[in-house]
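REQUEST
  id: r-88c1
  op: predict_structure
  target: Pentapeptide repeat-containing protein
  payload:
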Amino acid sequence: MNLPFINDKVFENIDFTISTFQKAEYDNCTFINCMFTDCYLANFSFLECEFKDCNLSNVKTKNTALKNVTFTNCKMVGFPFFNCDRFLLELHFNNCNLSFASFNTLNLKHTLFNSCALQSSDFTETDLTLATFKNCDLSHAIFKYSTLEKADFTTATNFSIHPENNKLKGAKFSTENLSGLLSMYNICIE
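RESPONSE
  id: r-88c1
  status: 200
  body:
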């Protein structure tokens, strides 16, 4: 099915839980202060789009294409990224609430998470090679069988990563947050 093509358009202050959001291919569009909570975005396509100050919590994303998409100051609680189209998936996050988001089994190499809340997010079997978690809160985030090689956790907080169940070669940590690698061993660090 060929979708309508919408490019270079700005959508501002629209509540898409009330107004209809046209299923289309959005190219180089900007969404500012829009409400998408619980919206059905399956089979939509976003290429080089930016979402600013939007609420995308609990959206449905089966086969949604997110190609070079930036999210800034967005609330994305429970966002099911794992359902998105994986072809050319590229995401950038700045100051977003990504709590309870599901990234499991995705290729997120080089992804920047900047000042994000990632509490209870799922990164099971996710490839996060060279990803950066700058000033991110990772309390209760799940890292299981994840590839974290050369990932940067130097300013991340509250994470718990089991070294034996994840690939960590070349990953960066600070001396202040090393306890996140040892918490499962029930040892006292002073």
